[in-house]
Structure formats: structure tokens, C-alpha cells
Amino acid sequence: MWLKAEQLPAALAKKLAPIYFLSGDEPLQLGEAADAVRLAAKNAGYDSREVLTVDTSFSWGDFLQAADSMSIFSEKKVIDLRMPACKPGAEGSKALVSYCERVPEDTLLLISAGKLEKSAKKSKWLTALEKHGVAIQVWPLSGAALVQWLQQRLQRRGLQVERTGVAIIAARVEGNLLAAAQEIEKLYVLYGQGVVSDAQIQEAVADGSRYDVFNLVDAALSGRVERVLKIFSGLQHEGIAAPIILWALARETRNLIHIKRQLDAGQAQNTVFMRYQVWGERQKLVNHALAKLQQKNLMRGLLVAAQADRQIKGAQQGDCWASLLQIALMLTGKDIHVPSVSF
Description:
By secondary structure, this protein is α/β, with parallel strands linked by helices. Helices cover 57% and strands 11% of the residues. The N and C termini lie far apart (47 Å).
């Protein structure tokens, strides 16, 4: 069955489903939903977890083997399947349908996926997943929904903020929930629980980075390698969280893939740009990037983003900052390899 993200905690408290499918391109909501499922599973005795990531080296046969294998200690286990592109392909579709036809006992399948295309909602594999479990699609927040989310987040931290103060934070983060969570944590560290004035919020917000992730993305799209390196170094030195940088780079890469496909299919540029909120001066940047970036390079960027995500979470060895820089440099259109990074 389909649920909204805010319905997940209550559903987990009642009963665990055998399958959870979580999809979206808003990383904080997606990550927290997956964390909630993993915690509920752990509390229910699912002590074993196997993490699989759908990338170029992935085999759906390994997924089915993981589903069929039994622990020698008969432990309950979680299959934590990461599917960044949210496109299992023909082989993956068959594997997921096959899994649903004989859902293993004592196994919980958690699928964390990228943004779900509208056409995929009626696919056989997704219909099978939501029939046997829970499906949730998270969406970026804006307007009143973002304000409500910020208010709830502030309240959970014991922070009392006027509506004008919430509006200040909303304007600063521009829908980036990872950045919003970081701002709220900053307020908590600076002022503790209790009332936080608009002036205090202004001061804390003004004390932010001299560069932000959006400057980094725009510098990359314009092909300015030296500026990318300078901004990237500034972000790292100023303590900007790696997941925030990953969110911005992965979102831009994903949007460029979709824009390029739709333009190649003959759709009007104005319509496509409006759909992906490319306005004003950014249209020149995006056009400049589309002219020099090939689809295969952008897809490689998504694979590196998945690698960076695993490195950030400690699920894969390597320097996540090197992976993030590799994505940024890929967006410049320059073929620059980054084996390791130290700023």
C-alpha cells in the first residue's frame, strides 16, 4: 500500500511489513525514512543486514541469492537494497516480481530508490512491491509545507521560534532540508532549548558559509574549473556537511539527464526549463552545460554519487570528498580524474 512519509512512524509502530519501497530525490526525508525502517526492524529482532547497491557491477542474481540464503543461526535479516536510478531494468523487474511471488520468511526487504518516474507507478514490479508491502514517495518541500516542516523540526529540538523567524530560515535554505536541519542544529548548539529571537536567527544565518553549494553547482555548469576548486575547498574548510554537497550535485546531474532526454525527444525548451525551474540567467548556464556534457558522462556522475553516498555512510571505503569533487569536475565538461583529495 502507498503511504505518505509522515504516516510511516505510526505504521511502523503497529506492525512491520515484509517490504518497504522508499523513493524520492529529497535526501533527508528519504534517509530518515530508511533509518526509521532499519531501527524498527532492529527492535523487532532483525539483527542481520545485507546491503546491495544497483550499480554497474551489480547482479540481480546476487539479490535473489541473498533472498534465498538462510543464516546458519536462522537470524532474521534485512536486505537493504539501494537503487539510485530507480530503474531496475528488465532483469531487475523480473527479479523483484519473483521475490514478491515468494516473499521469504524472517526477511525484510528495504528498497531506497531515486526519484520515481510517473510511468513507473503502473509497472509490474512496483505494483507487486506495494501489494505485498509499503511504498512511500517523498517530495521536495516548499511554501507552507516547508514552513510546517521547519516548525515541527524546531519544536522537536525544543526551540521556540516566531513565524517570522521560521520564514528567515526557509528563505536561507531554499527547500534544501539537509541545510535546514543543519541550521536548526546550529541554533540548538548556540542558544539551547527555549525562545530564539529573530535577531538571533539572523545572526546565526548570517554566520554561514561565504560559498554555498549552489555557487559550486553554477561554477561547474559554467566550466570554471579553478572556481570549482576554490569553492569546493571553502565548503570543506567551513564544515559544510558532505551530504548537503552530494544532494546539490546529484540533483543537478539528475535534472540535466532528464532535461537532455526531453529536449532530444523534441519537447520545447521553454516547457522543459519551466518544468525543472530553470529561469533567468540559469538558462544560459544549463544550455552551456548541455552543449558539452554527454548522457554517458552524466550517468557516470550518478554512479559516482551513489559511491559518495556509501562512503559518507561508511558502507564503502574511500574518500567521499574525492568522489564529490569528481562529480563537480564532471559537470564542468572537463575529463579530470581525481584519485584522492586533501585540502
